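Methods — Computational structure assignment.
A single polypeptide chain was analysed. Its primary sequence is given first, followed by the predicted tertiary structure written as structure tokens.
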Amino acid sequence: MSTKEKKARFEAKDKRLINCNKVDVNQIMPMKYKWAWEHYINGCANHWMPDEVPMGKDIELWKSGNLSEAEILMIKRNLGFFSTAESLVANNITLAVFKHVTNPEARQYLLRQGFEEAIHTHTFHYIVESLDLDPSEIFNMYNEIDVIGEKDKFEMKITEEILQDGFTTETEEGARAFLKNLIAYYIIMEGIFFYSGFAMILSLHRQNKMTGIGEQFQFILRDETIHLNFGIDLINGIKEENPNLWTEEFQQEIIDMIDEAVTLEIAYAKACLPKGVLGLTAPMFEEYVGFIADRRLERIGLSARYHKTNPFPWMSEVIDLQKEKNFFETRVTEYQSSSSLSW
């Protein structure tokens, strides 16, 4: 190919998050969406592996008979939900989202997120083996406990459409379906469905119970905070570039979807806490889920609906990525390049 026949170099302004035909997805520079790269760098700085966390105290407590039946039920049901939910998120990223995002710096973050989802699945494998739990009980719980299965079905139904042969975001209908998928996974799955479980397990941690599991959930929560922030930036970026997608009718569809998710999450909390434990009750989680859902709605440009207060203000401390020690100083947590994290 002669010099004159070579394709002209692109400029950063030519990039788009979806449906970009001007730019080779292999060319990450020049960069347009610096927020995507920043999320990637933050994710790398927050790197951890589950087997770095000692489980000796957890094993001792689990075998001691000193945990109540209510505490054991809460722990197992949260392990059951998270163990397969993380796989659903990973599958959605690798089989659906990555394919249709046409921006290389956003794809760079999605690769990092996919790896983190694998670490989270590794975490539940590590916990199950450490406590000598029945793996089929934990990893098959979504087929046996209705409130867990309903949350998973809710997400899988939304993924089905964009996994169909011939699906494209080049039509307005397809682009809107893709945006709905992003909201279902980033705003609902990672932004709402995960948070009741985080609060439950980390409440145990605050009472110096099951500190190994608690520390791992703390690390997962920090990862999920970055996932959520990336997802919100991606959603809002697609909205900005494609304002025709964000119709009043579609906004109402999203509101209805979040209403359904809130109902499912409250039912899940009730099933995990049928009688209450550790000062936690199901009504507290009805309040918390509404509070969290309002924050998610507001960040994608929709109005708050539930007007609840936060019964767990201490959760904000757990999300602090620059925190150097866990709650009870069972070990010092050192992140690679932790000084680079800024919020």
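Note: The CA atoms of residues 85 and 323 lie 27 Å apart.
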